[in-house]
Specification:
Two copies of one chain form a homodimer. A seven-stranded mixed β-sheet of chain A has the order 6-5-4-7-8-9-10, sandwiched between helices. Chain A has helices at 7-16, 47-55, 68-82, 114-130, 141-144, 148-158, 190-197, 246-255, 285-295, 308-313, 336-346, 358-364, 368-373, 410-414, 425-437, 456-470; strands at residues 21-26, 58-61, 86-91, 134-138, 162-164, 179-182, 201-205, 226-229, 234-236, 239-241, 300-304, 324-326, 351-357, 379-384, 418-422, 443-448. In chain A, a hairpin with a 4-residue loop joins strand 8 (226-229) and strand 9 (234-236). Helix content of chain A is 34%, strand content 16%. By secondary structure, chain A is an alpha/beta fold. Chain A has three domains: 3-91, Rossmann fold; 114-255, 3-Layer(aba) Sandwich (Rossmann fold), CATH 3.40.50; 285-470, Thiamin diphosphate (ThDP)-binding fold, Pyr/PP domains (Rossmann fold, 3-Layer(aba) Sandwich), CATH 3.40.50. The interface between A and B is large, with 52 and 52 residues.
Chain lengths: 471, 471
């Protein structure tokens, strides 16, 4: 009990397919008779379990030693199969009880239906080989199911151009010669949109068709010209296949007789600045991200919070694989600083570049306390537009305003870290270079931009969202 | 959607009977066909509704203009009846639709069963009048149902001594001549415990029998000698009455023929210091609270977070009614700073004294940003024992440690407020007096105590809890 504090983050893991295992202690089964009022209890002893049932793909209460091991196996196998969170509740009087003696570990990994897989692959190969301009659109499940290497091989074997969804950004290096950019409907770059939407064979691999991935449903994707495979469904044009696993399909494509073709990419509409002559001009979102695009390198993992941090960062060119992390579907504010903890603990060789608006930072930014405790060293860029800047263009009012913190003073509070206040381009340059040098602790940049300054991507999105709110 | 961030606080409102109305926007009904992936969505469009169904006493989705007004009435009436949270979800395409034209407001306040009430009151009056040593034990529902004035009149009319539960602390002024103190089983003061447990007629009014209220079930209350009335049940000795409302019973007792008796109180085992000679001795929990006991006055509202802030503050003598607020049942860490916002916005004439451990403060203390934005002026005492001090005596390890913030530097981050670092008694004295003088902004005191220094109440509690963990 007491686990409800992670309800929202569990919901996010469900929505975005992260296989999180939540383990919660609970009062002993022997304490539950007569329904006493134990602290942290809400309605009944199973209230928390019932809540997490709604937010996970499998859940269990280990109230029977005879079945406990099987239940743990079942729940974890489901997390691995669907890449969604699961919930295990452990009553405290069950901790020391012996489990079933003749317990057999659950093996049986689920397989694809061999006939369905064969037919679907044949049809896909025929369709792709006959296509004039096939395009792969790669989604986040390529990362979740560990298929990045297979994807690269597939692309390099065939020279089929590849785009990514926003949630799937960086499932392959964005410097790869076959990569054409992010596809996000009207929210994304026009040249990518045109190329993808004019394809006569769109191959969607592990891509969620969510509102933000689709530029708030401004995407124009023709199902009659699509091959669409995720962990949950498989369709070619208007017919569906049952029992096909994403990983079997991707590996099958890689082994199949797909014809290589000459590399024929759309013109790149966007080239990052190699040179950034800093001036004492007030810093803008556009110039900030132009500079960051040359600042990030192969050791950087970019973590973007929701808001313009997400939209503006969609234009960054990420070098490595899965080195761009954002809550691009669930879109819960306050994601980035906590996420940087997990990302750097998982891979201590990367230095996180955290991009976070001031609104989101005020929700969870003090998790930098844990960052400091574990001596991690993210560079945190607070995009300080004095409030909920993403909301202003849609509907503005006092509810969008925030107290303007002195973010660069945060190291004084925590007793470690280095802070920089950045108002113009020269100060940005100095702060970035000093942050690169000072890698012993976190660095935080308070980048003060105008309240109404937004990225091009956000401008496109808010035009679309604003129309929806008014309509 | 996006409302899951308040799941835990809603659960607390349910557990502790706060009538909170949660109103959540949601995607339009017209947008839900074909189940598109809109951001913030978890499993289905009703996932959030299903979660809040578990955490509220009534809930509704306003998806039909014909029934919307009735549904709003039903849900709010239920909140008022049970003093529990309710949930109203408003799809965004329903906002501008006209409701039912011939709508009749719901009136019908529920009444007690007149015969049952009469019989119960008769029996209670006979029992109380025949008793040698009756005692009232008042709980939080006296506040929730607005019965404080009736309670005082009842006590003053009869001279029956009165104790309070921890959650109900300050339902009447703790300076009232008939008040004998908090009853909390083995956790509380011995003289109160003995007096209550030796009563031949215990009158429980609106009291939850929760584990913390009962000193982790160390209380020895004899049902055969009890009259126990709450909003949910009514029993006299071992028989129950149905259909009796708490407010009707309390008002009935007040009007009934209860005999006045001479005031006969147990000796007060505890007298607050009127004088506090400060020295340069390191500050301790005991001396901190001894000093706070003379610092608080009739303008103070004490708000205690969970942990030793709660237990130590149980000994404070609170002057006014409902001027002590704590999460004494649900016990969720991080309650106090956010609660001080609500308390002071509700009553701007009181100055909150916020008592919060460093562990709890690191969870939600930055809500002082909102405090500053609304120019509120709580005095925040961070009881800094460098970690989760309540847990250490039960089971210690690195998981109880925290980064030691420079809490007194927080005003530099927020750009307002006054901070004090307090290590000895002289510094405490100076900081308290300066805080009293500086009422234009919040003040924060970083009171540095030893990691293992705990209050007497917590020592008693952890002995009991520790035994439970080991057993």
């Amino acid at each position: 009990m007491g686990g409800l504090k992670v309800a929202n983050t569990t919901a996010q893991a469900y929505a975005e397919k992260s296989p999180v295992v939540i383990i919660s202690g609970a009062p002993g089964i022997g304490e539950r008779f007569k329904n006493p009022l134990l602290h942290h209890k809400v309605k009944d002893f199973d209230t928390q379990y019932r809540v997490f049932k709604q937010l996970t793909v499998a859940s269990t209460v280990l109230d029977d030693p005879q079945t406990a091991f099987q239940e743990i196996d079942r729940v974890i196998a489901t997390a691995l199969r669907y890449k969604r969170p699961v919930y295990i509740e452990l009553p405290r009087d069950m901790v020391d009880l012996p489990g079933h003696l003749n317990y057999q570990p659950l093996l049986s990994p689920e397989n694809s239906d061999a006939n369905a897989l064969k037919e679907a692959l044949n049809e896909a190969v025929t369709t792709i080989n006959a296509a004039r301009q096939p395009v792969i659109l790669a989604g986040i499940e390529i990362h979740r199911f560990g298929l990045q290497e297979e994807l690269v091989q597939l692309v390099e074997k065939t020279n089929i151009p590849i785009a990514a969804t926003l949630l799937g950004k960086s499932v392959l290096s964005e410097l790869h010669p076959c990569y054409i950019g992010l596809y996000e409907g009207a929210m994304g770059r026009e040249e990518v949109r045109q190329y993808v939407e004019s394809s006569d064979c769109l191959i969607l691999l592990g891509a969620f068709m969510s509102d933000i991935n689709l530029g708030i449903f401004t995407a124009q994707l023709d199902q009659g010209r699509s091959i669409n495979i995720t962990s949950e469904k498989a369709s070619i044009q208007f017919h569906n296949y049952e029992g096909i696993r994403l990983q079997d399909f991707v590996r099958g494509l890689l082994d199949a007789n797909l014809r290589p073709r000459p590399l024929d990419l759309p013109p790149r509409g966007y080239v990052p600045l190699s040179d950034f002559p800093a001036s004492d001009r007030k810093i803008t979102i556009a110039r900030l991200f132009a500079r960051l695009n040359s600042f990030i390198d192969e050791n950087t993992i970019v973590i973007a919070d929701t808001g313009d941090a997400l939209f503006a960062s969609s234009d960054l060119i990420v070098r490595g694989r899965t080195e761009y992390i954002a809550s691009a579907y669930y879109a819960s504010l306050g994601f980035a600083v906590p996420a940087s903890l997990g990302a750097q603990l998982a891979n201590p060789n990367r230095r996180p570049l955290v991009l976070v608006g001031d609104g989101a930072f005020q929700m969870t930014g003090l998790e930098l306390s844990t960052t400091a405790r574990y001596r991690l060293n993210p560079i945190v860029v607070v995009i300080n537009n004095q409030g909920y800047g993403t909301e202003r263009p849609m509907q503005d009012g006092k509810f969008n305003d925030l107290l303007n913190w002195n973010y660069s003073k945060l190291p004084d509070l925590l007793g470690t870290g280095i802070g920089f206040k950045v108002t113009n381009e020269v100060e940005l340059e100095e702060a970035l270079l000093a942050s690169r040098t000072n890698s012993e602790s976190f660095c935080i940049l308070d980048v003060c931009i105008d309240s109404w300054d937004t990225s091009e991507a956000l401008k496109r999105l808010t035009r679309s969202l604003g129309a929806k709110i008014r309509g």
